Structure formats: C-alpha cells, structure tokens
Amino acid sequence: MGIYQQIMATVVGSFLLGIGVNGFLIPHHFIDGGILGLALILHYFLNVPTGFAMVGLSLPICLLASKNERTYFLSSLFGLFLSSIFIDVLAPLRYQFLISPLTSAIIGGMVIGIGVGLMLYYKTSSGGTDLLAKMISKSLSLNIAWIIIFIDGLIVLAGLSVLNLDRIFYSCVVIVVGGVTTSMIEGR
Predict the structure, then answer these.
(1) Which secondary structure element, helix H or strand E, spans residue 38, and what is its range?
(2) CB atoms closer than 10 angstroms to residue 150
(3) 7-57 pLDDT, tens digit each
(4) Can you tell me the distance from the alpha carbon of 1 to that of 180, in angstroms, rounded to the nearest whole number?
C-alpha cells in the first residue's frame, strides 16, 4: 500500500466526514460518538467550531498513539487536521439537505462510516476514538465496529444530559449505521 493511496484515502475520507457531519448531523442536532460527538456537543452549546474542538480533544489520543501505534500516528495526525478542516470549511452544507430525521441519521451514518472505514482500511484515521478503537482492536483482537459502537454509545449516553430523547435515538441510529458501515469498508 503506497503513500499516495493513503493520502488519497485520507483526503476522500475526511471530505466524506465533513459532508456527513454538516449535511446530515448538525441540521438535526444529532451527535456522533467519540471525539466528534464531544466536539458536536461543544458546538451546539458553546458555539465552538466543531473541527477546532475535535483537534483539541483528539491531541491527547494522538500522543498516546505516538508511543503505541507509531505506524498510525503521523497519518492519523494528518487525518485529524484534514478532517477538522473539512468539517469547518463545509459548514455551508448544514442546511442544504432538508430531509427527515431518520433518513438524515441513516445517510449521515453511512457517509461518515464510509469515510472512517476508508481511512482505517488504508491505515490512517481522523484521530480521536477511531485511532483509540484501532489500538484496542489490535491489542484485544476484537472487531473494530463493536469497539467504535461501544465508545460512541458512551458519548451518546453523556449527551443525555443536554439532548432530548428523540435526538439521542437518532444519534444512536447514526452510530450503529456508521459502525456497521465502517466495519464493512475496513474489513473488506
């Protein structure tokens, strides 16, 4: 697997992440799990740019990866910054797709899952909990999709204090669809 393929996977995956977040999650105030979910919560309630918050929250995990997963560290750092830039630059997409909450949750989960899965398949990530899940998956020989779903579920549970139950339900749909899609792409 060449560096060119890895760079292209990072660019395309990050772009898809930006589309999924802005086109399908933010319009309905859904959250994803992991670092992105925490960044979305900060965005909704403190008006912090989502990509900026994602970088700040992900850097400690990237530093951990620099010691434990050197092969993923640099590519994940690049993926983190690129994903964050795409998430903030593609903000104008936020109200372009006016579709039902369920459809938005399913499509958003699929688009994000394809982006994340593509990056993981090419040994890179957007940093954050995707990188953490990759490290856990490798060390415990567990399916990465289940690890992502578990971590993401914890973040959605944290969102219970700030989001209503409808948004929590649809956020769970985003996470499950995203996790299964990630597994299908990453595991091929």
Answers:
(1) helix 34-46
(2) 16
(3) 999 999 999 999 999 999 999 999 988 899 999 999 998 999 999 999 999
(4) 24
